[in-house]
Design a protein that fits this description.
alpha+beta, 7-stranded antiparallel beta sheet, 1 helix, about 40% strand
Length: about 160
């Protein structure tokens, strides 16, 4: 039976340490890549969510008599009307205090802009009607990216 020399044990120990260090560096590099991808994905999602939310809400009402541009709290807003149990309710979409907000109330109620539910961060929303039945939304998100959408509102 041969006995191991100290050189063989040291070589095995060095090889194990090199493997461990390589594994640790790979994990650190992978975590950095993951964080950058996650940040980029979150930034992209935040950029798209505001305008996407607005257009989806408008399309869900999809009636020219139920969708119109107006102002709320001194800023542009989109009003969406719906009838329920003989009462008219309005959903107001607007930007206030750095946030896109949504407010649902009975038509004619006097509410304040801070009463709305926060949807996402936003800097501004401009709503125009360049032609009959078309809304032009210009939305600036919290990061300063501006997007524009023209929405054709069909009538039933």
């Amino acid at each position: 039976m041969r006995r191991q020399t100290g050189a063989g044990a040291i070589a095995s120990l060095i090889l194990t340490c090199v493997f461990g260090a390589t594994l640790l560096l790979s994990l650190i590099a992978g975590a950095g890549v993951y964080r950058r991808v996650a940040d980029r994905t979150e930034t992209g999602a935040n950029t798209r969510v505001g305008l996407t939310y607005l257009t989806a809400k408008i399309h869900s009402y999809d009636n020219a008599d139920a969708v119109y541009a107006g102002t709320f709290g001194g800023a542009d807003a989109v009003y969406l009307l719906q009838e329920m149990d003989g009462l008219t309710y309005e959903t107001i979409l607007y930007v206030y205090d750095g946030q896109l907000r949504e407010l649902l109330c009975e038509r004619g109620w006097e509410l304040e802009p801070e009463d709305g539910e926060t949807i996402t961060e936003a800097r501004s929303l401009t709503v125009e009607e360049p032609a009959d039945g078309i809304l032009r939304l210009t939305f600036t998100d919290g990061g300063g990216t501006t997007q524009q959408a023209d929405i054709f509102v069909r009538s039933n």
